[in-house]
Here is the input.
Amino acid sequence: MSLVATLFLSSDKHSAHYASTPEDFEEAVDYGGFSVLELSTLWAILRGEEWHSDLADDFPCVLSDDPFFIHRLPDAMNGVLLSLAPDQVRETTAAWAETDEMDCAPDAIRPIVDDLIRFAGMARESGLSVYLYNC
Here is the structure.
């Protein structure tokens, strides 16, 4: 069974409900194969630094009920994503694809990066946060 990875918008108060009632969340997109580890490598790239395990702490866990986990993405990450110019999006995607954690072609993960940027914009407009659901 592969890892389910879903990005969704919510408030802290309601985010943990995603595990039991995902149909109640209009803004959600499903992927597979990434977790906070992979997102923290992207976060390191966006920050222009080497990855270190403390970066995972920037993604607070709001639900830990094995096999379900929900983490909130850092607001600062959303801000950086929104500030990227198109050439920076390509460079960031390529750098993320080259990490040991992703190890894939940039085209394979470009939709994830595009959705992260889209969700960051929706979060800014709505006052909600972006979350990652893993199962």
